[in-house]
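Dear Dr. L.,

I hope this message finds you well. Following up on our conversation about the binding site, I have prepared a predicted three-dimensional model of the protein together with zinc ion. For your records, I am including the exact sequence and ligand specification that went into the calculation, followed by the structure tokens. Please feel free to forward this to your student if that is useful.
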Amino acid sequence: MRWYIFCNGHILLRDNAIPTGSAPPAGLEGPLLTQPLPSIDGEACMAVLTERVPEGEDFRAVPLRQSYYVLSQADYRMAGKAEELLYWGAHTKYCSACGTPLVADTDISKRCPKCAKEFWPSLSIAIIVAVTRGDEILLVQSHNFRGNYMGLVAGFVETGESLEECVAREVQEETGLAISEIRYFGSQPWPYPSGLMVGFTAKYAGGTLNLQASELRAGGWFRRDKLPEIPGPMSMARMLIDHWLLTSGTAKKPQQQ
Ligand SMILES: [Zn+2]
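The resulting structure of the complex is given below.
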């Protein structure tokens, strides 16, 4: 059994790995919440939410984002799923229609015993977009970035909106620019705490850069040889920027004679 143990927003690692064993790690007292997970290569997995780091065990509490740099991809992805399910479990206790305490139904759903309404984990969907103009890319710095790097325009999808409409609206709102050729790039679970990040590419189509001061503190067009600090490799922003770097440097070199 692999134990994905969360405490105060951190995941507990032993020797820089997910603790394993047939029983819960010793010293794990009074877990607030347990949640069965899918197995990895036939090995069962369990998520546990606990209030304090067990004493007498050589645990290291690591922020989930940092665990990306320590864990295997499979363990990091499972840790994200564990965190999302534990967050949902801890924050979905009462029926939103009638206020009755919910009971577990399936492994990943709850039910109201009074009005029978079902509750499943929900996702917040956000878009992120790499807008390019010739050999330049549009980079911005949001007020909520934790660092001095420059990233991409991003935002949450609103009700009644398609993903493409959201991409165009966010770029217009944050930068004043119009875009075209909006193309799907890829998606990524974003368990902070329960998101799905959907990446797009787009082309500049008009307008003058006019940053939305309430959202952004910096922004501009950058060429590949003058890039500022960019987001870390775990993010969809970095995948989009790396993709642009890979595909934009295709200006034909003069042929050797
Ligand atoms: Zn109810």
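In brief: Residues 95, 97-98, 100, 112, 114-115, 117 surround zinc ion (CB under 6 Å).

With kind regards,
A. P.
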